[in-house]
Amino acid sequence: MANRSDIMGLHGLKNKPSRNSFDVSARNLFTAKIGELLPCAVYEMNPGDSIRIDASYFTRTAPLQTAAFTRLRENVQFFFVPYSQLWKYFNSQVLNMTSSASGQDVSRIATSPFANEKVTTGMPYVAYSALHQYLYKMGQAARAIFPVGDFSAKFKNSVFDNNGEYRWSASSKLLQLLGYGRFDYQNMSFEDFSDKPVVGMTSLPNLSVFRLLAYQKICNDHYQFRQWQGYDASLCNVDYVTPSGSMDLSTQLEQVDFASGKNAQRLNFLDLRFSNLPLDYLNGVLPTAQFGSESVVSLSNGTSKASPSDTSGNLGWTSGADGGALSHTDSIPSDALSLSVLSLRQAYAAQKYKEIQLANDVDFASQIEAHFGVKPKHADDTSYFIGGSSSMIDINPIVNQNLSGDGLADYKASPIGNGSSKIKFTADTYGVVMGIYRCTPVLDYAHIGIDRTLCKTDASDFVLPEMDSIGMQQNYLFEVQAPSFDGVHVGFLRDQNFVKSYGYAPRYSEYKTNYDKYNGDFCFTLGSWVTGLPANMIDEICRHNLSSMQIAPELFNCRPSLCNSIFVNQNNYLVSDDKLYIGMVNMAYVTRNLSRYGLPYSN
C-alpha cells in the first residue's frame, strides 16, 4: 500500500541554497616582536563552507647592530575553532528558534531535574566602549604607580608587564589585528595617559567575543608546554554565561581593578599571548621524576618468630632455660616482607597508566589515542590544526669598506625572510579559521655551565645499559650555570644552590641530545653578535626562581628581550619598538551556500 502520509508534517522540506565561490583575498601588513602569537588572518565560516588559502609573507627587521650569528624561525599556522567549543549554548542559540511550531520547549540543556535552560537568540558580547575603558584605566593606574624616569625595576613582573611589553599596548595590538576597532594605546607610554574620567562612546555597537575567545583557545590548545603550563579555560570559555542571564561580558572587565590589583594578576581574554621556545637539553626538563604520584604497594610492619633451623645441637644456644627451643620475636621492616607478584603487576600497571596519561595533552582525543591507539575523528574540546609553513630569516651581511676615519670596515646586516603555505578546509559547523604568525629564535646559551659528562668520577657514573630504563634522572642547576669570581664576588660563594635539581630528563640524556652554545668573547664584548640567553640573564633567572626552582618555564619562555642584543632599539614596551615588519598576502577563495548578488533572480 502506498504511504499516503509522505507529504504530511513537511518532513522532507529543505532549502536549496545557492552555492558560489567568492574571492576574499587580502594583503595584511603588520609588525611583530619576537615570540608574539599574532592573528594574521581571520575568516568566519558557516556550515558547508570550503576555503582554500595560499598565504605568502615577506619579512624585514629593524636595524641590526652587527651581522649577527642569529637564526630566527618564523611560521604561519592555520586553525579552525568551532564556536560550540567556546560556549556550550551556541548550537541551541544559533538556530534562532526559541520554541517549536506548537510552542513547546526546544531546549537541550537542563538546569535542574524540573526545569530546562531557556533558549533565546542572544550571543555573548562586549561593548566597544568597555574595551576602551578597560585599557585606558589600566594606563591610568600605571601612571599613578610608576615614577617618572627609570621605572623598569617597578614595571618588571608587575600587573602591567606582559613579557616585557606594556600590557595595554599588547592588548591593543591584539584587538586591532582581530578587527575590533581603533586602539591608539598600543603606542602610548604610561606617561601619555591623563587623569580625566573615561566617558563617552555610548552609541557604538556591541561586539561578539567569539573571535577573541577563539584566539585564546588556539593558544591554549597548541602553544603550551603542558607539563609546566596549565590549561586556563577562563581565557577561552564562557559557559558561565547563560541564555537566561546577561550576555554582556563588559561587567567581567569591570571586575579587574589595576589600582588595587584585584583580578589583575590573572590573564584574561584580552591579553596577547607568547610562544614557547623549542625544547632542548636545558629547557626541556620535566617537573617530576615520573608522571603522577608513585605507585606503591602498601606493606605494613609485621612480627615474626624466628627459630634456628639447625637442631643438631651444633649451635649450643638452641635450647632455652626451660629446655624448649630458643626463639626470638621482633618487628621486621616493611622492605623485608614478602610481596606477591600480583601486587607488583598492579603497581606496575598503575604506574604505566599514570605516565601515559600525563605524558600526553589533556584533551579527549590525545588521551584516547595514547591509551587505545585510536584517534577519535572528532575532538569536541580541541581546535583543529589545518596547515601551515615554516621558514628561516636570513641575515645577509653588509660590509661598509669606506676607509675614511679610523679605516675599519663596518659590518651591518639586512635580514630578510619569506615563506608560503597552502591549506584547504571544509567546515561542518559555525566557527572561525584563524592564522597565527610567530617568530622565535633558535636559541644559543652562554656556555657557563658544567658539562654533565665531566661529572663521571666513579665507575658507577658511566653508562650501565641495565639501568637505562629505570626512570628519569635529575638535571642540576650547575649544568645551566656555575659560579665564578669577579671583581665584585671575591672569595667562596654559597654554592649549595648549584647542586640542586631544577627538573628531570630521560636517563642518560646527556648522551642522547645537546644544546646550542656560544663561548669566548661572544659572552662579553661581542654580545651583539649572538642571540640567546647571556650570562647575566641566566643569572637573573636562577636568582629569582631559586626558592621555587621554577627555572625551566623561564628558560623556554620566548620573551622579546632574547634578541635585544642584536638590534639598535633594545626596548620592547610599545608597537614602535616592534622589530619585525611583515607583509602578508592571503590569496583566499571560499565557497559558500550564498547567492552571488543577493537578488531574487540571481543564483
TrEMBL record:
InterPro entries on file: Capsid/spike_ssDNA_virus, Microviridae_protein_F, Microviridae_protein_F_sf
Any one GO MF annotation of this record: structural molecule activity
The organism's place on the tree of life at top rank: Bacteria
SUPFAM superfamilies xref list: ssDNA viruses (SSF88645)
Assigned protein family: Belongs to the microviridae F protein family.
Identification of the protein by name: Major capsid protein
Species of the source: Gramella jeungdoensis
